[in-house]
Every structure is written in C-alpha cells, then in structure tokens.
Amino acid sequence: MAFVSLTKLIALCCYLFPPSFAAVSYPTELVYQFPNGTWLENLAVRPSGSILTTVLSAPTLYLLQPGAEKQEARLIHNFSSHTGLFGITETAPDTFEVVATNFSFATGSASPGSSAIYRVRFPHRYSAKAVVSLTLRLPVDVGIPNGLATLNRDTILVADSQKGVVLVVDTRTGTSNVTIAEPSFAPTASLPPGVNGLKVEGNQLFFTNTRQNLLGRIMLDPKTGAATSPATVIAHVLTGPQFPPSGHYDDFALSPNGKVAYIATGGGNTLVRVDTRTSKQEIVAGDLNSTAIAGPTAVVFGRGANRGSLFVTTIGGLGAPANGNEAVGGQLVKVQLGDDCYR
Questions:
Q1: pLDDT tens for each residue of 135-169
Q2: 235: pLDDT strictly greater than 80
Q3: Is the pTM here over 0.85, yes or no?
Q4: 201: how many CB neighbours lie within 10 A of its CB?
Q5: Nearest CA among 34, 26, 9, 12 for reference residue 271
C-alpha cells in the first residue's frame, strides 16, 4: 500500500492539525500492534470479552484476547473476494454482521457493486472458529458502506459515507433500501466520508459525520428504521481560541443510556468524551504528538472484566504521523476509565 495514496486520502477525509490539548488524561495500554501499514477500521466485543477487529488495508477479520499472557492476533476469516472491511455490529450473542468492499486508497472510493454484508457466527462463547455466510450483496449504487448499527435482531443500519444516506438491511431476507437521507448525513463538496459511525439507543440513532465534523441524533422507528423527526446536531469538533483545530470525528462508542459518547478523532490521535445532553466535550486520552493512540478509527466499551474500559482501533498514524514522521502499525488500545466510563 502506497503511503502517498494514503496521504491523499487523509487530505480528503480530515484536517491534519488536531489539538494537543487534553482536559483529562486516562491511562492507556497497548493491547496489540499490527505490522506497519495495517489500517484497523472497526471493532466489536464478544460476550467473552475478546475483541474482533476489521482491517481496511486487507480483507481480514482478527480476534484478540485482552489480558492474555501471550498476545496474538488470530485470523478469523479472509474475505478474499474483497480488498477490505469496514463496519461490524453484533445482532445476537456471538453473531455479527460485517461489511466488505473493494476500496481504493488511491481514489478514496469503492468499486460499484463490490460491497457485501456477511454474517460471522461463533458456535459457542469461547470458540475461536466462526461460521461465515453471505447475508446480502449491497445494491450497485451504494457508495462507501462504512459504519454499521443493530436496530433489532433482524435489522441493521448501514452508513453510506459517499452518498450521505443510511440504508436499512433486513438480515433475514437479504434486502435493503434507503431509509434516511438527511442534510447532516451528507459529505461536503461531494467528498466522503459524510455519515460515518452509527449507534442506536432505543428510538434514537446517533451518528457522526466526518466531513461536517459533527455528532448528531435523529429519532427513528425501532422496527422499520424510518426517521420520525429531523436530525439535530449535538456537538461539533472542538473549536475556539483555547482549542487548535481538532481533527475529525470518526466512529464512536455510546453509553447504554445514550448520555455519553466517546469519539475517535482520527488524525487528532485523541479520544473525546461528549455529554449528549449538554454538548460539553473534553479530550480524555491521547495527544497529537504521541503514538499512544495513533490515528483512532473506532471505539467500543469493554465487557466482563473490562467493563470499565474502552477499546480503540487505530491506523497507526498513516497519512498523518505524530510529530510529522512517527508512524506505527495499526493498534488495539485499551483506555482505562474505571467508574468514569459511563458518566
């Protein structure tokens, strides 16, 4: 993978001069680091507490065990008919939907008709082998299928970051249609990514838009996914005299009560906490000039023994290295918040 092409992509997708400011600093722990050039895109936590991570720079899904004495990345599946993976969401205990596509870092786009959603099912809680099957091939007019969210056991939502819409997918019938097209989902100047991360809490859909640098919310029907209100903006990327330009909002984790979002800031090398009620936000981990969280892409809450922690995937600083020249391999990082995790 050419670093020149990655630089062009990052230039399209984000601002490259985010902040070194941090209001709070929680301890981080490097769980695992992949080889240089590995772009970790998204992740999900299994009921056992192990982590599944998708790779965009290769069509691979890996399993990692936080806390294991000897850490290794176990390959779960190679989706060989595609070039990379984007989002992942759990629809039932140990059953996940994953989106794969043929994505080009050179153009920042996916090949028309190349995208599909697959089901990854683990037979039991501690199984390291999965049964993988095709759920559906996405319509040919889908642009970049990015973040996924579970609406209910049989329905997931898919963010199309290029077209600026959200698709609803019936995982039983393998059918999809556009359910929401909102101005706050759209990219700017026709450059993706627009709508990016998705999270559902009750009848609320929370979302990030990378190009518009916002966190928003829209009410929806929990059965059909149809919007029942216009979207509202909760927060924008940190701005003002006390904050240098602060990167971009990528994917995020949402507390079970929907009151707090933890957002990956991409080239900012930081994790931001946003109170969804007051719009107050603060940087809680990472730093512009550090590779501790080098180019974060997605965030999840831990489960079981790691319930008081967050896990973050990164791209290792590809395209926007810390201090201008410090790039590392894609990372899985643990952020230890303890009792503050859900506040």
A1: 999 999 999 999 999 999 999 999 999 999 999 99
A2: yes
A3: yes
A4: 16
A5: 26
The residue behind tokens 């993976």 is: 85
